[in-house]
Specification:
Blueprint lengths: L4 H6 L8 H13 L5 E3 L8 H6 L4 E5 L2 H10 L5 E3 L12 E6 L8 H14 E11 L13 E2 H10 L2 E12 L2 E10 L1
Parallel strand pairs: 1-2, 1-4, 2-3, 4-5, 5-6
Antiparallel strand pairs: 5-8, 7-8
Helix pairs in contact: 5-6
């Protein structure tokens, strides 16, 4: 999914009052304690105030130039890179925590597994959101996907990670929205 200028500009305003959005924020706030952060996709920078408030060094990465433009306008001093979670190009274990929220539903199962392997490669732990159900495969809003829980769990294990904590942030007819804290096995 490529987010254009008009969509990127309205992104936060369309979501920030929704309970799932707030639940995602609380999970990141609770699980992110210290160390450097890679936020990918950073989008419009919704978690940057949290990083700044805790004085955590961070880099934001996104493949959408429109989202990065909005982020740059809000946080001109932020270090932002154009890049992709499937191949960040960053050094191994260069971050304490990777924050990856609202990306996995846009990836196919093989891409999801690749993104989780990249997360394990670049960061010590990861805070990741995912939409799951028992079966997976549902195509939803704007072409996003619901993944099977087992598919996600196996991809996590294949990446050398484990689910250390989990929170349901929303529920819909096409699946449960989860925030997961992933740590090395």
């Amino acid at each position: 999914m490529q987010f254009n200028g008009a969509y990127a500009s309205a992104y936060d305003a369309e979501r920030d009052s929704k309970p799932g959005w707030m639940a995602e924020h609380h999970a990141v706030a609770d699980w992110l304690k210290e160390g450097s952060v890679l936020d990918c996709p950073v989008g419009t920078g919704r978690f940057i105030p949290l990083y700044l408030g805790r004085r955590l060094p961070f880099i934001g990465m996104d493949r959408s130039e429109a989202m990065l433009e909005v982020c740059r306008s809000r946080f001109p001093a932020a270090r932002l890179l154009t890049g992709d979670m499937l191949a960040t190009g960053l050094p191994d274990q260069s971050y304490g925590t990777l924050v990856c929220v609202r990306l996995l539903p846009w990836l196919t199962p093989p891409e999801m597994a690749e993104a989780l392997r990249e997360a394990a490669r670049v960061a010590g732990r990861a805070i990741v959101s995912v939409r799951v159900d028992k079966v997976g495969g549902a195509v939803c809003w704007r072409g996003s996907l619901t993944h099977a829980w087992d598919e996600f769990r196996f991809a996590v294990q294949d990446a050398g990670l484990r689910v250390a904590d989990i929170r349901e942030t929303a529920h819909s007819p096409v699946g449960r929205f989860l925030m997961t804290l992933l740590e090395p096995r």
